[in-house]
Design brief:
The chain is α+β, with helices and mostly antiparallel strands. Helix content is 36%, strand content 22%. It is built from eleven helices and 16 strands. β1 and β2 form a beta hairpin. α1 packs across α11, α7 runs antiparallel to α8 and α9 crosses α11. It is globular and about 80 Å long. The protein binds (2S)-amino(hydroxy)ethanoic acid and manganese (II) ion (MN) (2 copies). One manganese (II) ion (MN) binds next to loops.
């Protein structure tokens, strides 16, 4: 393996420095937690705003607190958007989302430093809500700028009953500006995102970076099981309407359903579970849990959702409990634009690497932007494929290659659009 050029090493070193600075903006000292519109989100956004300004961008904050770093020296009429998210999951890794924003900033800085003329403007986006940890939604920021949701999202409330509208105002954003949050499709040429793979494929193949072909479809439900609370010592097993054992049966049936669908790369995850009343000598009477369901294509995932509804109805009948399902997210499998994949592949080849193409099992903001423009993604190898975990790690050199590939992609797109204009 050739050792990377000095500029690649420099990109990687700069990226790591910014990633570390963002990692210090956390709700807790020993776990990385940065929820949408939290004080730590504010601190991270202030860092990103300063970095965007230093790179020559004009920075605005939209109604949902997405930072938009604008760089358009040729005053071009159309934009290429490039971004990712700066919110994190609970006990997160440092690179998920954050590296994509850092890569965009470093790319603009490099383009300005080298005086590269592009026939389009650039807008670097730092989304505050992709993970959907605080409010019952996912891809919240990108859905809004793509016009996929209306201002009813402002009335969503978090676990403490705080509405998004109130949180936005406390954060220093202006929710009333929601009406002009969307981008017009005709103003856009593309959306690009650099992101860690969050899986093991690039590492297994020995490639630092890759070209993303598609983003897996994704459905998220909340299931509530209601039973009857009772005395742990006096209610015979045959008379119980135990919400937790009923929920457990549903959960294991869902796990088996995904296992039976490996041909479609189906995965099902129960990430959150709350039960009431929560005393060791009381039979639980209410359990609510999340179901995250994904597959390589939409039909199997939709069929599995119907099967989950059947499983719930059967357990409701067999166990005398009440089961309700609420879907709070559904995103179809999203293809990345072929021409943009080719620009990315060309840029990766230009820096001496193999342009390996692969799908994304993880969800990304590109699923929202794909509704209004062409999308492309550059993946970075991450150690052991670990993500959503503090052990998540991308090497400086690999990050450097990704930044260089992004710059190269923008240059190639620039030549393409200059030739065709
Ligand atoms: O869950 C996902 O796939 C993304 O990390 N939000
Ligand atoms: Mn994530
Ligand atoms: Mn992410």
């Amino acid at each position: 393996v050739t050792s990377p050029d000095p500029d690649i090493v420099e990109f990687g070193r700069k990226a790591e420095t910014l990633i570390q600075a963002l990692a210090d903006c956390s709700e807790e000292p020993t776990r990385l937690i940065r929820k949408f519109l939290s004080p730590e989100h504010r601190r991270a956004a202030d860092l990103v705003q300063a970095w965007m300004s230093d790179a020559g961008m004009t920075v605005t904050q939209d109604a949902l607190a997405t930072l938009r770093g604008h760089y358009n020296p040729s005053n071009a009429s159309k934009l290429v958007l490039c971004g990712s998210h700066i919110d994190t999951v609970i006990d997160a890794g440092r690179y998920d989302g954050n590296f994509g924003v850092v890569a965009g900033i470093l790319a603009v800085d490099e383009i300005r430093r080298r005086g590269i003329d592009l026939p389009f403007g650039l807008e670097i986006l730092a989304f505050g809500d992709e993970e959907g940890v605080r409010f019952p939604t996912t891809l919240g920021s990108s859905s809004a700028i793509a016009g996929l949701v209306n201002d009813e999202v402002l009335s969503l409330v978090d676990d403490d009953g705080i509405s998004m509208r109130q949180a936005l105002m406390e954060f220093g954003a202006d929710p009333s500006a929601f009406r002009n949050i969307v981008y017009r499709p005709e103003d856009l040429l593309a959306y690009l995102e650099v992101h860690i793979e969050q899986g093991p494929v690039l590492e297994a193949q020995g490639y630092p970076v890759g070209v993303v072909t598609s983003i897996a479809g994704h459905a998220r439900h909340m299931i509530t099981v209601k039973g009857v609370a009772g005395h742990a010592g006096t209610v015979p097993m045959t008379l119980r309407r135990d919400a937790l054992t009923a929920a457990s049966k549903i959960i294991l049936d869902i796990e088996q359903l995904a296992r039976d669908n490996q041909a479609h790369a189906m995965v099902a995850t129960i990430g959150r579970l709350e039960l009431l009343p929560g005393a060791s000598n009381v039979i639980p009477n209410e359990v609510t849990f999340s179901v995250d369901l994904r597959a390589a294509s939409d039909a199997p995932r939709i069929a599995a959702t119907a099967e989950i509804e059947r499983i719930c109805a059967q357990i409701e009948a067999n166990r005398g409990v009440q089961v309700t399902l609420a879907q709070d997210h559904a995103g179809d499998t999203t293809a990345c634009s072929e021409p943009i994949q080719d620009h990315i592949a060309g840029a990766i080849s230009d820096i001496g690497l193999t342009p390996f193409r692969l799908p994304s099992g993880a969800g990304h903001d590109g699923q929202s932007l794909a509704k209004i423009t062409d999308i492309g993604m550059i993946f970075v190898r991450c150690r052991d494929g670990i993500s959503h975990n503090p052990a998540e790690h991308a090497s400086m050199d690999d990050m450097g290659y990704a930044v260089a590939a992004l710059v190269g992609t923008l240059e190639r797109m620039g030549r393409h659009y200059s030739a065709s204009s």
